[in-house]
Amino acid sequence: MLSDAERQALRDIQRRLAADDPDFVRRFRSAGRGRTVARRRNAARRRVARLGAISLAEVVIALAVVGPNVLTEARIAALRQPPAPRRSTR
Fold first, then answer.
1. What sections of the protein cross the membrane (predicted)?
2. Main-chain phi, psi angles of 27, to 5 degrees
3. With 80 as the cut, is the pLDDT of residue 68 above it?
4. What 3-state class would DSSP assign to 19?
């Protein structure tokens, strides 16, 4: 932690630097902003990728659970027909 005197000295140095070479200060500030924007963009891409992976996993799980039991029109028609009468084997 900086003391009050050290903070004041740092502000004085910053002011003098800005007065002596404003172009350097401008480039320094814009470089810092670029990294922040890139970090946010990367974080957003990671969130989208994570959401896509979760969605894909949910679809795969749903297909694994429901997939073998999908009712087709032919299967529905077969289920609606009454069972064939039993014949005795005597």
1. 48-66
2. -65, -40
3. no
4. helix
